[in-house]
Design goal:
The protein folds into two domains: about 30 residues, no CATH class; about 240 residues, Class I glutamine amidotransferase (GATase) domain (Rossmann fold). By secondary structure, the protein is an alpha/beta fold. The longest helix is centred in the last third of the chain and has 17 residues. It is globular and about 65 Å long. The chain is built from ten helices and twelve strands.
Length: about 300
């Protein structure tokens, strides 16, 4: 959240130059405040785990947030009952008339398919097109980021020879965006994917900025100028056991899968994982909510365009 200080205080310019959000008394007086309206398009098979992870991160803020959970009606959900979906989720036709401050599009285990082969691709395209005029800022996670970059900018994904699986070290490469305020020089993020987005495909697009990346896992954080679209190629929302569950699931299937890197102590899957990414996850979501959504979205939702 911003700090309100006198504009002539010596620290004002120093903090502003450090990309710290300081607010003048005049702006503070004229701020309008209301609850944020956030819609989560949950594409993950384990709906309950993903809901919990995202809501945990979104709740770590003094802002009041109203949440709508969204599902794809063109997909047969096998890991959750229809009753559960009917009780807690809405379909796109039910919300298409509304406007939201923020949209989160999660990952999905479909990355080895071409986008057009995904059974709900046409419906997802409708949501992403709708988001251009009905959502102030959209946050795309893992496959959701690949889908968003492909739909909005024609950037395709590429299969990697070895699954990017584990917790990887990252650095900030562009620190002018408020989205990376407070990031450590080195920070850790989980990844679990068979595909990647290439830097050279992003760089020619003048509206996109690469903010953070990893030598091992590649491009991580991409922002459209102005913060209306944010793309995160990893899984900062993952809970401590996520990669462990994925590893043992694949082992039981008889798959040839490597132990997730930088995750188990001494690479021993019998030991409890070490969580290195929790503080980064909270900071990323706080920054997105505050700087990309709360500080910029219109007070009247109907003015979003």
């Amino acid at each position: 959240m911003p700090i309100k200080i006198p504009e002539k205080l010596p620290a004002f310019d120093t903090l502003k130059n450090e990309n710290i959000f300081v607010m003048t008394e005049n702006r503070a007086i004229h701020q309008d405040i209301r609850p944020l309206e956030i819609v989560i398009l949950n594409l993950m098979p384990d709906k309950i785990a993903t809901e919990t992870q995202l809501l945990r991160l979104l709740s770590n803020t003094p802002l009041q947030i109203n949440i709508v959970l969204l599902r794809m009606i063109s997909h047969d959900h096998k890991n959750v009952s229809e009753k559960y979906l009917q009780t807690f989720y809405q379909s796109f036709p039910e919300i298409v008339h509304r406007k939201f401050d923020g949209l989160i599009i999660t990952g999905a285990p479909v990355e080895t398919l071409n986008f057009e082969e995904v059974d709900y691709w046409e419906e997802l395209k409708e949501v992403m097109e709708w988001s251009k005029t009905n959502v102030f800022s959209s946050l795309h996670i893992c496959w959701g980021s690949q889908a968003g970059l492909y739909f909005h900018y024609g950037i395709n994904k590429y299969k990697v020879s070895k699954k990017i699986f584990g917790v990887f070290q990252h650095t900030v490469v562009e620190n002018n965006s408020p989205l990376v305020r407070g990031f450590d020089d080195l920070f850790w993020v989980p990844h679990s994917r068979h595909t990647e987005i290439k830097r050279e495909d992003i760089e020619p697009i003048k509206d996109l900025f690469i903010l953070a990346e990893s030598k091992e896992a590649g491009v991580y954080l991409i922002e459209k100028k102005g913060g209306r679209q944010v793309f995160v190629t990893g899984h900062p929302e993952y809970d401590p056991e996520n990669l462990k569950r994925e590893y043992h699931r694949d082992i039981k299937k008889g798959m040839d899968v490597d132990i997730p890197v930088h995750y188990f102590p001494q690479d021993d899957p019998m030991k409890d994982p070490v969580v290195r990414w929790r503080s980064h996850a909270y900071l990323l979501f706080n920054n997105w909510l505050n700087y990309c959504v709360y500080q910029e979205t219109p007070y009247k939702l109907e003015n979003i365009q």
